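Issue 218. Parser rejects a valid record. Input:
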Amino acid sequence: MPSVSFTIADVFSTTLYKGNPLAIVDAREETLTDTQLKLITRQFNLSETTFFFPPTSPKADFKLRSFLPDGKEVIGAGHNILGVWWHLAQANLLPLPVPQAADENFVFHQELGGQVMPVRVTRHTSAISFSVSIRQSTPHAHATHPDPTGLALSLGLRPEDIGFEGLPPQVMSTSTTRHLLVPLSSVAALNQVTVAGREALLAQLRRADNAAYGLYLFTPEAGDGDGEGTTNTRAFQARFFSPGMSGEDPATGSAAGPLAAYLYRHRALKVDGRGAGKIIVRQGLRVGRECVIEVELGVGKNEDGEEVVEVDLVGGGVQVAEGRIAVPDVSTQF
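Output the parser choked on:
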């Protein structure tokens, strides 16, 4: 029976069983149909499973495809993509030179959803470890939620728990995946949130945007700089819920990236003279995880003099398991 090798990594953490679990499958040697990819993903039953293949574009080093357990393919770049590149570096599957005495950056290219995007791999020689930086698609702002009071009550909160620094609940995206970003007034309010059920959550998302996939709640962390958007580095805690998930997501890169752009858009995050800003997001604390996502924000001008905002996710991982999984028979239905 044919099989393929896999690795399970905890992403956005360097501590076993504290990151966001990801199944990573080496599909370079087998020709797998979409149905086989979906069956393997469902068998792992993690939030996402990502497969890496030889590239079809001459400009890319690897082609990646990522799936949810329900069979939906994910194009957004979050822990599902960053974790694969961390694995490729850690498993010596990237052509890296002999380590030097200082940290080194290397640029590779990934093929994802028909696009070729750069990936930065940093080798930290002091600990012989790696971190990865991935560029997300251009951030986009969408509708704001029309009823913050109703949203608060649906989450078991008081109306005054919604918002800080004048920020509104708003839908943002850096891919085809849109999330409703909801600012909360305190860590206490964040910890108090209760999501009644799939239908109630879906109803609130649809009030803002019929295409919204998840609810991303965030609040400044204690000791978050000076607050009020007066610094180019800020720290937050966050939680994420989606009707498509059975529970709370421990780390959501597809929401953390847009969050940086959202904060800049609403003047809650400044950039320095180089047009650079940064946020640090801690997530998963309520579900026994301790994920740390760094987002680097870059602001510049294009050839027409228009402002361009870019976001990069930065993080690492730790290997939890490895092995081989049988390739499903081509006649098996999903």
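Fixed in the parser; the record now loads. The chain has a mean pLDDT of 94.
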